[in-house]
Amino acid sequence: MKINGYTPNTDIFKNVTGNTSSLDLYDDNNGANNVNGVSDFGNLLKNKLDEVNNDQVKADNSIQSFISGDKTDIHNVMLDSEQAKMSLELAVQMRNKLVEAYQELNRTQL
After folding, report:
1. Where is this chain's protein located in or outside the cell (predicted)?
2. Model-level pTM?
């Protein structure tokens, strides 16, 4: 039985919209990874952790304004809180995966 080979089309990643200004891991000329990909990963990680922190601060401010009696809608408070919760859970899962990958590399025998 012959299995047909599959070659993924990586051109779709060049048209990604959103906050990817700090992501320049792909060289448009030849499709090779840049040499400074490690520093880009560090910047990407820092930016995403800053976004998680901003979500937490936004949720805290929303809760405080609701408690103080400002005209804040409870739905917006709950949405901000859930956004902060989900982003924190994602950050924790990513941290766990990175630690797991690091431990796996340490177990690798040369």
Report:
1. Bacterial flagellum basal body
2. 0.61
